[in-house]
Structure of Hypoxanthine phosphoribosyltransferase:
Amino acid sequence: MKAEDVQGDLTEVLFTREEIEAKIAELAAAVDADYRGRDVLLVGVLKGAVMVMADLCRALKGQYPMDWMAVSSYGSGTKSSGVVRILKDLDTDLSGRDVLIVEDIIDSGLTLSWLRANLQSRRAASVEICALLRKPEAAKTAIDVRYVGWDIPNEFVVGYGLDYAEKYRNLDCIATLAPHVYE
Ligand SMILES: O=P(O)(O)OC[C@H]1O[C@H](OP(=O)(O)OP(=O)(O)O)[C@H](O)[C@@H]1O
Ligand code: HPA
């Protein structure tokens, strides 16, 4: 789906499909430079990170096994509840493993700070984070993020995996959602 297919619902396209592709290639080069040749597990966070993971892993040159978790802190709205629930856990034993969490967005930071602590408690050797988007003004907790695509303003965004009430995930760009859609 393209921006013109849901134009009235969006206020601005922040990043086009081409810009996202170029950014993913940059992130992949940085990850390869640090990790290629090591046994690193990519952990994708469902469902938002599906697109990032699908494109990032194909842009990587090394071998990177992957696993998935589903956690939820947003319910169906635009505000984080701060309460994180595991909806689907990893299949992989993390003890002694280097882990790279792949995420679409860091908003309040509550999901990832909880998730990183959770994975560290499973005796992972290291847990780093790669996130395509981050909202610095929305941060409710400080997180050390090794790879970030873009810092964005504190507005609700959709597309490229990011949803509002399960819609817009299949938009090929990233755009701000018009307030009339969720108010
Ligand atoms: O920094 P935070 O404020 O915690 O927000 C970030 C989290 O919110 C979104 O997930 P969501 O719970 O909406 O689930 P989804 O990935 O299935 O869309 C997103 O994918 C992150 O996991
Ligand atoms: O801006 C956002 N858009 C979609 N999902 C999200 N989850 C946290 N922040 C966002």
The pocket of PRP (ligand 1) is lined by residues 45-48, 72-74, 80, 103-112, 163 (CB under 6 Å).
